[in-house]
Amino acid sequence: MLYERWRQIAREFRGETALHDLTRGERWTFAQLAAAGEKDAGASPVIFPQGPDFIFTLLRAWHSGRVVCPLEAGQKPSHFESLPPGCAHLKTTSATGGVLRVVAFTEEQLAQDADNIVATMGLRRDWPNLGVISIAHSYGFSNLALPLLLHGIPLLLVDVPLPEMVRQAADIAQSITLPAVPALWRVWHEAKSIPKNIRLAISAGAPLPLMLEKAIFDACGLKLHNFYGSSECGGIAYDASATPRTDAACAGSPMKNVQLSIGEDGCLEVRGRAVGTTYWPDRNSKMNKGVFYSSDLAEIRDGFVFLRGRAGDVINVAGRKLSPEEIEKELLSHPQVRECLVFGAPAEEAGRGEIIVACIAPNGELTRDALRQFLLERLPAWQVPREWIFIPSLEANRRGKISRTEWRARYLAGWRG
Fold this sequence. Notes:
The protein is of the alpha/beta class and 417 residues long.
């Protein structure tokens, strides 16, 4: 199915530019890309697209009928003793505790996610995607690779998203779509290098701070559209509004062809034809028959999805529970807090449960006493962090995520900044 759709796209747009790799200084038309992909991928039952030849390896896998498992640069291939029936694609994802596992998808499920994204976001062939995020990650694969191969939306690839390189890459096209993560949008904004010809700006992979969204809108007139999804089911919600949000918890409205509800545990449930088949090799009840039972605490109000934290991240302070996102929201309203991350850690005092730890990346001079007083004016005293760690920036992991689990593990191992 996927390869047949690709062949139709390649025939329809054969003479037009499909892929332009600016790092290598090479470009391919749809016809040239099709010819390069018509090679045998080899005897291995699973093919691992990776690095500069990602798109070519992917096409050869489709052509040869092999299962695809995208990898980040430097990531080692896994060995699979067996594969689930009907499996065409494996996405790597981190389970609770940071353990790596995969989610199995059929061809139809992959195609549906791409169709949902193109229809919901309004991706257009005359607005090429500027690829600065990893194509191996679920976000990049569904927003860059699949729109190229299944919808004929050209792709401009930039290996290193430095401000000047992004600006030069954008000049190649009259108009562009730019999907990125909040950390990149912040860097480009601070460097005053956001391209003027962006027609669609998307932010995903981590919570988009309201202050950043508003600052870019005020400076450039550019609306950052918040996008919320998961490796297990693809796109979930999208903020299609024309002006900045007023509530950081708002993830947007449900994607087209995606049905959302709240389970008895308060977590979001996602239904649709893009939901993956199963975790592999260890099956899990969190994904079953077209339903993904997420760990995201949420509410649905007036057609919008509001995220209230993750069930596993809830902090227990002497029997009283709260979501770290509530504290982060208030901290990010401080003009000198650029980034922050809050988590719970075991308390030394018996019966207290956990203490609240806050990691702060400041914009200038800032003290813990000032932040503590700032929060005391907005939150109950028991919700104010006991431990404060000041850092230059929040580092994302190799999947582009800022993992609360990983930062908590560093703290428990003795790290204090």
